[in-house]
Design brief:
Layout lengths: L3 H18 L4 H18 L2 H10 L3 H5 L1 H8 L7 H10 L2 H10 L6 H26 L21 H20 L5 H18 L2 H21 L5 H26 L30 E2 L2 E2 L6 H11 L14 H11 L6 H5 L3 H8 L10 H19 L6 H18 L10 H11 L15 H27 L5 H17 L6 H16 L3 H5 L10
Antiparallel strand pairs: 1-2
Helix pairs in contact: 1-2, 1-8, 2-7, 5-20, 7-22, 8-10, 9-10, 9-11, 9-21, 11-12, 11-21, 12-17, 18-20, 20-21
Amino acid sequence: MLKTSLHRGIFIFFLSTLCIGLTLGKIIMSISMIGLFVNWFIEGNFKEKKKINDSRGYVPIILLAVFFLELLWMVFTKEPVSGLSSLRTKLPLLVLPLVMGTSNTINNKELKIIITSFLIGVVISSFIAYCVDLGWINKKINSGTSRDISITMSHIRYSIILCFSILTILHLTLKKKIKKWIAIILSIWILILIYKMASLTAIIGLTTGLVAYAFYWFKQEQTKNQKRIFYVFVSAFLFLVFSIFSIINDFYTIKNQLSFEELPEKTNLGEEYIHDKHNEALENGYYIWRYIAENEVQNAWNERSDISFGELDKKGQQLKFTLYRYLTSKGLKKDRTGVKQLSENEIRLIEKGATSSISYNALALRIREVLFEWENYKTTKNPNNHSFTQRIFFGKIGLEIIKKAPIFGHGTGATKKQYANYYSENKTLMKLDNQLLAHNQFLTQTINLGIFGAIIWIFLLILPLIKLKTDHRPLLNAFSLMMLIAFFSDDMLERQAGLTIFATIYYLFIFTSSDLELKNLFFLKKNTE
């Protein structure tokens, strides 16, 4: 039988490789998870494991309820295959509390190895992402956006873990556990990547996480540089808020103030203009749906491009709408004269899906995209091909599904079938390729578990986050808020990568706490008299 010290080394090894795998994809995650469980089982010594569980107030066993809740709700599902698939995805919720919770507390030396491994994984994955961006590695998806550089997992999950790595580096810096020059280089390297990916979920998550971290840190810590650091945080936050409001204000600032009655009726060549006074969508301050002479635009465009006016651009958008928006952004009319004023380079840009002649930074571009999606949705009620408005649409469907089984839900893994039923039974504007699921973890859980089960699920997850008094409390606060935001924008726990990211970090926070902290966590105190 292997010595206890060797089993401990294997435990730390697989936990470290798991943390490396959090940014590198499912294969490393799966191998690490299997390795952790097999090592735990072969080690045996279950009497000692039981003692550790008892000394921690049964917290490891209680936390298994998060998994067994899903297992119990299999009785409500009419889709056992989907239910079993969901349970397989959520196995980390069974393995990690069992293995980590009945092993001796991770000491500082071991924690250093684990955190270093995590940051190594972040650096490796970021190198891969930069190589994809430079074209040295092929993309898996070609949507025409910078988010395609994430090839190991969804860009939302990847950008969230990048944001958490920034907060981890900040935490280590303030605790004087990392050299400042290394922290600065790593932070700049990762922040540039987050900026390039332009995920609003990540940007909001990082901002909220930083505010939460700063609030708790300034409240608890007393340092000679506290005021200086506080002013840096506040200045950065105010600058971000000011930038966002400036972008929004500029988006809604109208540059052509002509009344509807003053608009010209015909082009120079005699075609009647279309002026849609009911659609007030803007591009760079100009109305998109005014000054449209479609026949002239179509003929002029087809003379200059190999992609027909009625086809799709290279981003999969209807080219004519891309062209309309681009012309509008330049303040040009949508007629032959307007198309003739475009350069050859601009023709190529439009073919690639460029909707504006203005070069915005990544943050401004993403915010403007969201604003445009919202304004377009208000007018047309068509959410297709727009991630923000599609999520609104998915949310409305989710609420309708919940109404059919509000108390106990439709059962584990039922969300996919329920959405498929809704799309088949109801006429919607949503194209087949866009008929997706909730993209909201809270909605997904309520569909599966009902309101009753979802409340139990939230209670089991949130209580440790509230009650723990760990040395890493500021980082835990930041992580909690980032996950809250991620859960509202993505069904994060329905995919192996998202579930493993959450579970690994969540249980590391819990099981690096003292046994005394854990003992009182769920109001259960073991009688030691």
